[in-house]
Design brief:
This protein folds into 3 domains: 61 residues, no CATH class; 74 residues, no CATH class; 85 residues. 48% of the residues lie in helices and 12% in strands. The chain contains 12 helices and 6 strands. A hairpin with a 2-residue loop joins strand 4 and strand 5.
Length: 242
C-alpha cells in the first residue's frame, strides 16, 4: 500500500462522509487499510495523514490514536474485572480528567467492530489476556448490533437508603426499586428512608463504584456509615446511561 493510495482513500472516504475525514478506526473498517499500513511507515499520527490529504483533523482525531484509546479502555476493563460500559467511562472521566470522554470511543463505530479491535489489541500486548477473554466471551453471545460500542439496553437502579434516624446507609441495585425497598424494610427494626436513586444502564458497575469509594466506611455487606458530604456526593448523580 503506497502513501498516495492511502491519501486517495482518505479523500474518497471523506467525500462519502459529507466531506468529513474518518477517524482511523472507522477508516480501517470502511477501506480495509490497516493501522499497520500507515503507522510508523508514512505518518506517526492519524491526524498527520488526514492533514496531508487536505483536511484539518478534528479534535478527537488529534487527541488520541486508536491504540492509545484501546489501551485506556483495556486498562479500565482490567481494573473493573469486566468490559466497561458508558457509565463506567463517565465515572472514570470524572475521577481522572486525563481519561478520554466516552464520546471519543464512538469513533470505533459498531459494538462488534469495537470488541474485535479491542481483542486484537489485547492479544498483541502483554498483560491484557483476561480482557481478550472477555472479548471472546462477548463475541460468542448473539446480540443486536448498534451504533455505539458501549450501548446497553437494560436499565436498572442504584439506590441509597437510610436506616431510620441512624447514620447507616445501604447502597444496592435493583430492577424494581419500589419492590426492593419494601423487602429491605421487613428485615430491619427501623423504617427505611429512601434517599436517592440513580437510573443506569449498568447497575452492577455503578454499585461497585460506590462500594469501592466508600469501602473505608463499610459496616457490613452493603451498609456504610456515611457522612453528610458522602450523601451529597451520591445525590449529585441522577442518571448514568449510554
Amino acid at each position: 500500500m503506497t502513501k498516495d493510495q492511502i491519501i486517495e482513500a482518505i479523500r474518497h472516504a471523506a467525500s462519502s462522509n459529507g466531506g468529513v475525514p474518518l477517524g482511523s478506526a472507522r477508516f480501517e473498517a470502511a477501506t480495509g487499510i490497516k493501522h499497520a499500513d500507515w503507522f510508523g511507515v508514512y505518518w506517526a499520527r492519524w491526524g498527520d495523514a488526514v492533514r496531508e490529504a487536505g483536511f484539518e483533523p478534528n479534535q478527537m482525531q488529534g487527541a488520541y490514536e486508536s491504540p492509545e484509546l484501546l489501551q485506556k479502555y483495556a486498562e479500565l476493563a482490567r481494573e473493573l474485572g469486566r468490559l466497561p460500559v458508558k457509565g463506567d467511562l463517565r465515572i472514570k472521566r470524572r475521577s481522572d480528567k486525563q481519561f478520554p470522554s466516552d464520546k471519543v470511543f464512538e469513533r470505533f463505530g459498531k459494538k462488534a467492530e469495537f470488541v474485535r479491535q479491542l481483542a486484537d489489541f489485547c492479544r498483541s500486548n502483554d498483560g491484557f489476556e483476561s480482557v481478550a477473554g472477555w472479548c471472546d466471551k462477548y463475541a460468542s453471545i448473539p446480540v443486536a448490533d448498534g451504533p455505539s460500542p458501549l450501548k446497553e439496553v437494560a436499565v436498572g437502579y442504584v439506590y441509597l437508603l437510610r436506616h431510620g434516624t441512624r447514620r447507616e446507609y445501604k447502597i444496592g441495585r435493583t430492577n424494581n426499586q419500589l419492590r426492593r425497598e419494601g423487602e429491605i424494610g421487613i428485615e430491619l427494626p427501623e423504617k427505611i428512608v429512601p434517599i436517592h436513586i440513580i437510573e443506569t444502564d449498568d447497575p452492577s458497575g455503578v454499585e461497585a463504584y460506590w462500594h469501592r469509594r466508600f469501602d473505608a466506611k463499610r459496616m457490613k455487606n452493603e451498609w456504610f456509615a456515611l457522612s453528610s458530604d458522602d450523601v451529597r456526593a451520591f445525590k449529585r448523580w441522577r442518571r448514568i446511561n449510554g
